């Protein structure tokens, strides 16, 4: 059955329903259970089923840790930032240390899974594992945020060359870094906030809404997909912007567009998001060339923004909390949970339908661990020297409570990605 894999990261209810409906009729159960995912919760359920089918004990991989269950713990061994973002090519707003964010506790919290330890990424080892490979981060600015943090950290052991950079009006739409010999590693970012074709604000911030075509994917990521050895897809935040959604030439729904005489889909944009994920993964399945070359496709779940509902978005305390949330403190967001579920289910379906050996699908499930880090955003510190060092923050200020400080919590996303790569063969 090849190397198809799907890491579900804590989706017991989904897997239980999925297996219940498939036990007697679907061969995809065999595909899912006889692969070796890097992360899987519901261990007892799946191991019991596998043992029943095979008559043998489950492999060790099924007993690995669920990285979605855990807590943030203070790490006294951390003496400073993992890397210096001063001379890294990343969005300047994310350089919190350089910009003077005063409460640097966000650098000292470490994610501690409930049943194991998550090792910090070692840049030398990372480059060894991905030797000769092409990594691509596809999606919105959260994909770029993660890619830039990774590149900056890897730069501590090998300085990359920037081979393509298009500074269009929106900025940073496509970048490529090349880590030269002996690594021969490429890391690219592809701006595609809907994964499918969007026209409007996503291409021109001077506009206020988007038109989204769910039946059309975007270039250039689609043109390069077969060459990608590791593909990280991260999108979701643009789906709650005012938009008209088209599918098969017809209006499929509108969101927050009172000027359009169509029924507002409200939270139903999750359905559009699901369809975009599905079609992107179907395309990857279709266009990935035959053969045994290993290809890892990782879909990230959405990390919520932390604009405090008690304040306006531009209030200085919109995201000024200095510490992570404890267990049960993080506000529950129904839409975010539904979007997370869509990613988990669509990735499982893609894994079941994979069309060649060596193609593996996994999920970078960061929703829960990220939801607990309201302290890890730039907040008001998006410009170097504007505040801090004795300069007070006025009551009304521009805030970034969506993107992550780099270094900061975003590095944990790459710690988990490293574990996926290390087990992908």
How does this structure look, described?
It comes from Hordeum vulgare subsp. vulgare (Domesticated barley). Residues 63-117 form the Trichome birefringence-like N-terminal domain. This protein has 425 residues and is α/β, with parallel strands linked by helices. The chain is 27% helix and 18% strand. The protein has 11 helices and 13 strands. The strands form 3 sheets. Strands 4-5-6-3-9-12-13 form a 7-stranded mixed sheet, sandwiched between helices. A 4-stranded mixed sheet has the order 7-8-10-11, covered by helices on one side. Strands 1-2 form a two-stranded antiparallel ribbon. The radius of gyration is 21 Å and the shape is globular. It starts with 11 loop residues before the first helix and ends with a helix.
Distance between the termini: 16 Å
Q: Based on CA inertia axes, which overall geometry fits?
A: globular
In this structure, how is the largest beta sheet organized? 7 strands, mixed
Number of strands: 13
Q: Assign the structural class, choosing from mainly alpha, mainly beta, alpha/beta, alpha+beta, or little secondary structure.
A: alpha/beta
Overall residue-averaged pLDDT value: 83
Order of helices and strands: HHHEHEHEHEEEEEHEEEHEHEHH
Low-pLDDT residue spans: 1-63
Q: Report the C-alpha radius of gyration, rounded.
A: 21 Å
Helix amount? 25-40%
User: How are the strands of the largest sheet arranged?
Assistant: 4-5-6-3-9-12-13
Strand content: 15-25%
Total helical segments: 11
GO molecular function: O-acetyltransferase activity; xylan O-acetyltransferase activity
InterPro entries: TBL, TBL_C, TBL_N
Organism: Hordeum vulgare subsp. vulgare
Pfam family, one: PC-Esterase
């Amino acid at each position: 059955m090849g190397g198809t894999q799907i890491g579900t990261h804590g989706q017991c209810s989904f897997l239980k329903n999925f297996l219940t409906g498939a036990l007697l009729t679907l061969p995809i159960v065999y595909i899912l259970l006889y692969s070796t995912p890097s992360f899987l919760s519901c261990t007892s359920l799946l191991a019991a089923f596998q043992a029943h089918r095979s008559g043998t004990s489950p492999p060790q991989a099924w007993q690995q840790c669920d990285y979605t269950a855990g807590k943030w713990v203070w790490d006294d061994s951390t003496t400073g930032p993992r890397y210096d973002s001063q001379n890294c090519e990343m969005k300047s707003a994310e350089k919190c240390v350089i910009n003077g964010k005063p409460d640097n506790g966000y650098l000292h919290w470490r994610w501690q899974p409930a049943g194991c330890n998550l090792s910090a990424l070692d840049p030398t080892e990372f480059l060894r594992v991905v030797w000769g490979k092409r990594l691509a981060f596809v999606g919105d600015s959260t994909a770029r945020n993660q890619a830039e943090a990774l590149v900056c950290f890897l730069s501590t052991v090998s300085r990359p060359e920037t081979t393509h950079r298009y500074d269009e009006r929106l900025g940073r739409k496509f970048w490529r870094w090349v880590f030269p010999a002996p690594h021969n590693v490429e890391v690219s970012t592809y701006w595609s906030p809907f994964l499918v074709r969007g026209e409007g604000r996503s291409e021109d911030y001077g506009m206020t809404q988007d038109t989204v075509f769910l039946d059309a994917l975007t270039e250039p990521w689609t043109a390069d997909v077969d060459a990608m050895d590791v593909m990280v897809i991260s999108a979701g935040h643009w789906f709650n912007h005012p938009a008209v959604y088209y599918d098969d030439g017809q209006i499929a729904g509108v969101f927050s567009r009172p000027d359009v005489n169509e029924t507002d889909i409200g939270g139903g944009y999750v359905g559009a998001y699901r369809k975009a994920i599905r079609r992107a993964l179907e395309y990857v399945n279709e266009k990935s060339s035959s053969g045994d070359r290993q290809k890892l496709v990782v879909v990230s779940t959405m990390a919520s923004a932390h604009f405090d509902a008690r304040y306006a978005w531009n209030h200085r305390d919109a995201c000024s909390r200095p510490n992570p949330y404890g267990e049960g403190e993080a506000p529950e967001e129904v839409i975010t949970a539904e979007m997370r579920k869509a990613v988990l289910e669509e990735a499982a379906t893609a894994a079941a339908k994979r069309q060649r050996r060596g193609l593996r699908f996994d999920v970078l499930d960061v929703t829960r661990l990220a939801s607990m880090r309201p302290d890890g955003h730039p907040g008001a510190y998006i410009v170097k020297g504007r505040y801090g060092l004795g300069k007070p923050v006025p009551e009304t200020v521009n805030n970034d409570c969506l993107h992550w400080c780099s270094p900061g919590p975003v590095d944990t996303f790459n710690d988990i990605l490293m574990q996926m790569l290390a087990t992908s063969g």
